[in-house]
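for ur thesis appendix - Glucose-inhibited division protein A. copy paste whatever u need, i formatted it the way the template wanted (i think)
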Amino acid sequence: MKRSKIVAIITGAISIILAIAYLLLVQILDFRGEMKPAPISEVEQPVSIVTQYHTNS
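the 3d part is after this line
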């Protein structure tokens, strides 16, 4: 019983540490300001190739 309590405390502490680290990361990324999309002229347009197969049925 004592070992399972220690494991529960350790995993709970790790969970809290990860949650705090996540919140700090989100705050740091949010602090950078508004995200603006890239201008359309600088975004490469993907090339799409369409082929059509016709079978005699």
